[in-house]
Amino acid sequence: MTTTSVEHASFTIERRFKASPERVFGAFADPGAHDRWFVKADNWPVAEYSHDFRVGGREAGRFSQDGKTFYFNETVYLDIVENRRVISAYTMAKDDRPISASIATVELVPEGSGTRVVFTEQAAFLDGLDQVEYRRSGWEQLIRALAAELGEKADAA
Q1: What pLDDT does 42 receive?
Q2: pLDDT of the residue at 155
Q3: Residue 136 — φ and ψ, nearest 5°?
Q4: What separation, in Å, do the N-terminal and C-terminal C-alpha atoms of the chain show?
Q5: What does pTM read for this prediction?
Q6: Residues of the chain predicted below pLDDT 50
């Protein structure tokens, strides 16, 4: 019999950008920009990817660093408020085995002419196959890639 477990965890990452909320939101909504900072940021070969950025829309990807082990991401967009908020639910699997299920919220808070991005993830990590430290580290890398997409460095909150 296989032992199962669930670790519930959440984390928040905040960064301030010089870019306006409209520009930051555009990096999520525009397929080309999203592809550059989100899909290809870690330089893993992309086997499959689709992105339908709208409420009820789905995003799905299959990635492999070594061509042997594949990671799958399936996302549904639950709420999108232009230039202010994106909420999604997503699952991840390693090969055919689920490793996590999450709710992710991206808040874009205007600060002067810039934007404070507040990313919060609430997750269930399954069977010890993923951990909050790995996920947080992954999102910190993605936010750095978002900064590069916007042509700037992100200042720590």
Answers
A1: 65
A2: 53
A3: -60, -45
A4: 46
A5: 0.90
A6: 1, 156-157
HEC profile of the chain: CCCCCEEEEEEEEEEEECCCHHHHHHHHHCHHHHHHHHHCCCCCCEEEEEECCCCCCEEEEEECCCCCCCEEEEEEEEEEECCCEEEEEEEEEECCEEEEEEEEEEEEEEECCEEEEEEEEEEEEECCCCCHHHHHHHHHHHHHHHHHHCCCCCEEC
Q: Residue 64 corresponds to which tokens in the numbers above?
A: 């492999």
Give me the sheet containing 97-111, strands edge to edge.
Answer: 46-51, 58-63, 71-81, 85-94, 97-111, 114-126, 6-17, 155-156
Which amino acid, one-letter code, is at 125? F
Q: Which residues are registered as beta bridge partners of 91? A: 74, 101
For residue 1, what pLDDT is reported? 46
Nearest-CA neighbor of 23 among 93, 114, 100, 91? 114
90: nearest Cα among 66, 64, 128, 58: 58
Strand partners, 114: 111
